[in-house]
Fold this sequence. Notes:
The protein is mostly beta strands. The chain is built from 2 helices and 8 strands. It has a single domain (4-132), classed as Lipocalin (Beta Barrel).
Amino acid sequence: MLRPAFLLALAFAATGCDDQNLEGDLVGTRWALQSAMLPPGDTTAISPSSVLFTSDTAVEIESCNACSGAIGRFSNELDFSGLACTEIACPGQLDLGPRLGEADRVVFSLSDDGLLLIADRDSTLSTFRFEAK
């Protein structure tokens, strides 16, 4: 069985991650969630969600709940732990902000195909693909 850390590294290599920054096309663009790969057994319904990087250090997330706050950046990793979110009950729906905020690691890749966020929480991966809105 392949270990999650190996799969995470393989996924990052496949997306062509290099030392990207948030400046340029990423900041100021609203990114709409197009698809998600959730852990096996996760039956959460994908609900309309979007991410807007308002600067190199701040983000707004619209999902079942709205979130905003500071983000940290370390090479290709983003730290969403500084998010503040509304707390509306979202039974069975994807709530993107807490998924990213509670992740141990979130790696990003920006390409012609859009924005890819890969979140690792307790060695369990979730992958979110976004397109510019």
